[in-house]
Amino acid sequence: MISDSTRKENFRTTNGTLFLEKISRMRLGSWNYKGQDVKQYRHYGPMAQDFFAAFGHDELGTIGEDKSINQADFDGVNLIAIQALIKEVEALKAENKSLKLAEASMKAETQSLKVKMEQFEKQLSTLMGSGNISTVSR
Fold it and tell me: Fewer CB atoms < 10 Å away: N or C end of the chain?
């Protein structure tokens, strides 16, 4: 499979998230070709018709056909999807880090409020014990 960048033209970037959505709707599973021994010859993957419906066209033209899947196109779709997943994982990691920092800040604030509440309760108890405050409404 030739993949030399100097032999390519009309390059277009793709939307990896859209590729993931398309893959999620594809009919994927195990199967065998008609006439093959079902116990001996099983395969995994998509149907060419589903692959072509999802990825068979871009703004410039047709990619592949609906009876087979070109290995270069299959690999390309997989790499685009993997790249999109990497970006999603990195975004989730950053969000998780931010949430952990916010959680730590809220825990520290909660602990500080607990300490202040304990101090307030001690002061209130002291005031009530000295007779300066006769009743407290709750």
Answer: C
